[in-house]
Amino acid sequence: MKIALGVGAVQAGFWDKSLARAGAPLSALNWRDALVSGVGGCIAIATVVWVCRHFLGMDGAALLVASMGASAVLLFALPNGPLSGPWAVIGGHGCSAIVGVLLSMAVSDSLLAGALAVGIAIGVMQLLRCVHPPGGATALSAVVGGSSVHALGLQYVVTPVLLNAAMIVTVAAVFNRLLGRQR
Fold it and tell me: How many angstroms separate the CA atoms of 119 and 99, rounded?
């Protein structure tokens, strides 16, 4: 089996054959893109962590950073994908945060509220054409985020969610444009 590794075809090693058997696409490895994606994600999440600590403290920040981490994967590893556009990221997180906060206020059973928050957030994102999978985690975080998140009420939507979503989109846009990875 031969695989293109960017410089030409070479005999595939154990790792490449194993990945191929697992269904991974056989394509050229691009170490530069992998490094750029990782560095960009690191910078974006460092910014988000700083903001989350300010507004939520470490307990609440841990949950919200998870959804933003998933956004970073999309924005830096797949910058031109349909789920990585500014409207998808900001709209998806924003409407999901609203749904999550409202359900955390309206439904006392956190398991039921969490399930409803994710399900309704998916439907709202589809209707608003801003599907962004990490939005589901944002909706769920509004429900299970604990007292620091619940104390924010609807403020959770603006700060930290929309602020962080706007920051991560801005960091991704600047970073990707500087490196020639334009949308």
Answer: 10
pLDDT score recorded for residue 3 = 45
**Hey, what are 168's tokens?**
């991560």
Which of the 8 DSSP states describes residue 160?
A: I
* pLDDT value, residue 31: 83
pLDDT digits (tens, 9 = 90+) for 50-60: 888 887 777 77
Q: Rounded to two decimals, what is the model's pTM?
A: 0.84
Backbone φ and ψ for 130, nearest 5 degrees, come out as -135, 50
d(CA 135, CA 94): 8
CA distance 142 to 152: 10
User: Is the Cβ–Cβ distance between 160 and 52 less than 8 Å?
Assistant: yes
